[in-house]
Protein: Aurora kinase
Organism: Cylindrodendrum hubeiense
Amino acid sequence: MLSRMFPRPANVDKKAGQKRPPTDSELLKHSCLNRMLPPPTPTRETTNKDTWDVDPAPKQVCLHLGMFEIDKPLGKGKFGRVYLVKHRVSGFVCALKVLNKAEIIRENAEKHVRREIEVHSNLRHPGILAFYGWFHDTRRIFLLLEYAPGGELFRVLRRVGRFSERRAATCAVQVAQALNCLHSKNVMHRDIKPENILFGLHGELKVADFGYSVHAPSNRRDTLCGTLDYLPPEMLSTKAKYTKAVDQWTLGVLTYEFLVGEAPFEDTPFMTRKRIIKGDMTPLPDSVSTEAKDFVHSV
Ligand code: ATP
Ligand code: MG
């Protein structure tokens, strides 16, 4: 589908009716697209050595703000806003997350932003919001992301109150599949919550916001981060090391929230912390099936 939105450079000589290698300006025009697209799949025509003698992907990709038409804001983040944008040349619609450098420095968050880019740009999965590229100017850093037209899971859940068991199960499976992909690459997300999960065009879930994520091949971390309601006991107890199982705990908390409409330890910050450490979860209502209860208690 993407390849239809991003047609290859028009390297067909119309008069002669023959293919010719793309010119430099044609390649430059499509330079940012090469980052967004998977490498071209060789077809019978493209395997012809003459046609692709020139490397179709330029080494240096030079994305800049002028390439995009800015549309409505989609949301607000810690260091700036996220906008709906359109790539002027191709008409490709995506989301642009704008991060303010001064704010990042003020918050001492350079490491987090670098990690967000490094981790997110290496992930490809239908359940993970696609990362297309990034660029920066003197004041801002721009992340070019897949547009999730369905918006935040958080808003949808608040609007409908709670999900049916079937819908809760579908959502839980999709988050579990995305987590499986992350964990197979030794990545911990560490901030799974309904605000950071978005709905794609067909109602499918997309895990987003890799601001707290970390690539940890040793599978042991000790930094306290994330959002209190979704943190596991091992993260809250002092000095304990934790593993990627922290994301699994969050899957249980999320599924509870899908079924009930609010998180299981919701309280004042002090009490929430205490209750998480004690495992003192508000019991699931009787209307929830035994199977669903088992799932929430076991993840
Ligand atoms: P925070 O730390 O507060 O979660 P953040 O700086 O990490 O913020 P994001 O969570 O990535 O920012 O984005 C902020 C909000 O913008 C999201 O909660 C969502 O509502 C919206 N948003 C982000 N990316 C997209 C996207 N690709 N498509 C649609 N909406 C998006
Ligand atoms: Mg977020």
Residues 1-58 have pLDDT under 50 and may be disordered.
